[in-house]
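B., you asked whether I could sanity-check this one before it goes into the benchmark set. Here's the sequence:
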Amino acid sequence: MKKLLTVAILFMVNLSLKAQIPNPSFECWDTTHLPQYEEPCSWTSYNLFSNQGYPVFVYKSADSHNGNSAIEVRTVGYTNPFPPYNPLVDVGLAQTGTNYQNGPNGFQYTQRPTLFSAWVKYMPQGVDSAEVKMKLYKWNNSTHQPQDVAHAEFYVKTTDSVYHCKMATFIYVSPFTTSGNPDTASVYISSSFPNNPTAGSIIRVDDISFTNCTVGINDLTNDNVPLHFYPNPAADLISFSSLPVSADRVKLFEITGKMVAVEAVSGSNLKMDIKILNPGIYFYGVYDENNKVVASGKFSVVR
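And here's what the prediction gave me:
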């Protein structure tokens, strides 16, 4: 009973932490400025300058890790709409907040997290790199300015064909190294290295969290319909047949809960390449367009 209570408490804490990140899965989008652009709810970007002739940098992408949408941030090459009308390349940037120029661009947060994570998919041009960063602050009544408490960031350099989990550990700075909590947090997503951006680089981000990139295995093993799939054990390929009509994608997970592959469904049958998977036990989950598990099961990889 004590163990169950501990697990339940940790689960509720994780939910609380995640809930405080505004629109972390990018399912909500502000359509006020359509057809010019959309903006993720509770986030802001350079898009607001597009009414002055600048390009749009942030888009709603249907290519998501979970749910119906993810944020897509682009590095754009364009012609300066003002004299001297020179060619420019600008990094796409999105951050939590409501107004890029005037703020507020943080959200209330009073915990001391150890890490944050996000699911990302990067398509760089040349040797470009993208960054996802979180900063924690606390208002300093003496200086009347926000004071740094901690920061965590990760960089993405390689081209991704599927979403990958990226995690970063918070580094706490003096005088908050061992104690003291923030009152504000901010998340930043940039599509390129700022000193040498390359036009055409694109990063997609989904499911930002203060926890690691895992799922509840119980969600994939309890009260869900099994499927006909083969072979089991498998080595290089796994095939699913007679998928439910509502199936939108199939995800594969390690026994720890970490997602290792995802494939979109476009019919009643699906084959997934599993050559990159190490030998071991894996779970599959079939998800509908609302990210609900409609079928699941377990298989093993042997070689």
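One thing to flag: The longest helix spans residues 2-19. Otherwise nothing jumped out at me.
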